[in-house]
Amino acid sequence: MHIGEIFAFLSAIFWAIGAGFYKKGLETTDVWSGNLMRTGFTSLGFIIFMVLNDSLIESINALTLELVFWLIFSAFFAFFLGDVLYLASIKECGVAKAVPISSTYPIFVSVWSFLLFGKLSLYVLFGAILIVMAIKLISKGEEKNSLKGIFLAISASISWSLSITVLELLTSYLPSEAVAGFRFIIAFMFLNLIVAKNGFNFSWNSLLWMGVGGMFVMVLGNYVFVEAIKLIGSAKVSPISAVYPILSAVFAGTVLREKITLRIIAGTLLSFAGVLLVLTG
Predict the structure, then answer these.
(1) Number of domains the chain is built from
(2) What are the residues whose beta carbons fall under 8 Å from the beta carbon of 210, sequence distance 6 or more?
(3) Lower CB count within 10 Å: N or C terminus of the chain?
């Protein structure tokens, strides 16, 4: 196995573990305070990474008003709105249901591409059908709280897809760690405004899982993902890293002791297949 393929699989493992970390942290805090701790520690992690990589000053000097605008746009929909919706969905319906549904964001990226450029392949169309079937399977017969969590997961997916539309532009001017780090810093600033008004719900448990744990999985997960793309290209990395919903379901069932039904298993596999088709298209 190529080292790039190993890195791609490691990124999926980190993201799968991260969902479990967030669920543990959210047991003792709210989503706003939890995401504040997560983005704060992750921002610090990326700053340290950029200092060690000698890219911090160079990245700051490369900033223009246009880049700052798109960084704010991407940060808002990725780590502020999108991640708050994602964390809320985990809190409402659990990791096993929230992750496979929120991971369907590639279909919405394809929708924006179709609306802007009029391009839609059969792969994307069939992938969309599988994803709709997956969501229906996972949500069928669920209680009100679970349905709310599923709606939040879909909303998170849409929000993330909006953020992704400008990543290619940003990474053409800034190194990957700067794009990630600056967006986390911006999201941290947004969250400070909300938490300052609503109050900061602190606990050592949430600090450990959301803050330290979040920094660990986000910095390392993003690093090995970017390195994998550099080594073997995004076409090979995307299908490998897309297995993280399946890993999350395994993690949720074995470690978090969530109830994994046949519908959740089938829905997760359908979601994975649908995302693969969309990525292929």
Answers:
(1) 1
(2) 21, 22, 25, 26, 29, 34, 35, 37, 38
(3) N
pLDDT digits (tens, 9 = 90+) for 155-178: 999 999 999 888 888 988 998 889
Q: Which domain holds residue 80?
A: 3-280
- State the Cα–Cα distance between residues 175 and 89, nearest whole angstrom: 31
